[in-house]
Amino acid sequence: MITAFQEVLAELNLDYETVSTMDGVRSFQENLLKSETNEPARSITMFAFDEYFPAVATTDILCRVSDVLACKPSEMAFYCVPKLMLRRVGEHEAYSAKRASELGDGTVEAREVEDARAFIDLFSASPDILVQMNECIMKNNTIGIYSGCKIAVEQVMKMAT
Q1: What phi, psi does 36 have (nearest 5°)?
Q2: How many CB atoms lie within 10 A of CB 84?
Q3: Start-to-end C-alpha separation, the chain
Q4: What is the CATH number of the domain that holds 8?
Q5: Residue 142: CB partners within 8 Å, gap ≥ 6?
Q6: Alpha carbon 31 to chain centroid distance?
Q7: Confidence band (pLDDT; 50, 70, 90) for 7?
Q8: In this structure, are residues 114 and 86 in contact, taking their beta carbons and an 8 Å threshold?
Q9: Is 144 left (phi over 0), alpha (psi -120 to 50) or beta?
Q10: Counting CB atoms within 10 angstroms of each CB, which of 112, 116, 152, 160 has the fewest?
């Protein structure tokens, strides 16, 4: 996937950077938090790793400074950040995209490039959709939608005593 993304970005002559280390991820977040404009150095930053853990940790770290998470619909569907759901890898992932859409904090699955582009155009044309997604996130949070891990730990602690 890294190569495919890089080829498309180069073909479209888009300026981008690739971050491939956790130090780079932390530096990216810190720079955004310190910046007066809250803008990254380049319009596109691709985070790409050879291992699974840094990818998950990156999502956790960058949620604070992200406008939209573009991802395949997996466990990422349950992050409390607006999501552009890209084409799934496994059939089971269809339910994650559907759930994010039902909760109002993510799009339906964009199965084709044209579909993803249409969402990006909508996001760029007006802030309304992203504002609505963020309002859904705040509402969902008040009713505990994003508290699954917390609830699971509480239940285990009750069972342990």
Answers
A1: -70, -30
A2: 20
A3: 46
A4: 3.40.50
A5: none
A6: 19
A7: very high
A8: no
A9: left
A10: 160
121, 78, 127: which is closest to 101 by C-alpha? 78
Q: What is the pLDDT of residue 1?
A: 81
Q: Which domain holds residue 129?
A: 2-160
8 Å CB contact between 80 and 105: yes
**What token pair was written down for 98?**
């559907």
Rounded to an integer, what distance in angstroms lies between the CA atom of residue 77 and that of residue 104? 11
Write the pLDDT tens digit of every residue in 94-106.
899 999 999 999 9
Q: How far is CA 20 from the centre of its chain?
A: 17
Query: What tokens appear for 21 in the block?
Result: 């280390």
Q: How far apart are CA 22 and CA 150, in angstroms?
A: 25
What burial letters (b/e) apply to 39-73, b meaning 16+ CB within 10 Å?
Answer: eeeeeeeebebeeeebeeebbebbeebbebbbbbb
What sign for the dihedral angle of Cα 4, 41, 122, 78?
positive
Number of domains in the chain: 1
Question: How many other CB atoms are there within 10 angstroms of residue 119's CB atom?
Answer: 18
Amino acid at position 107, single letter: T
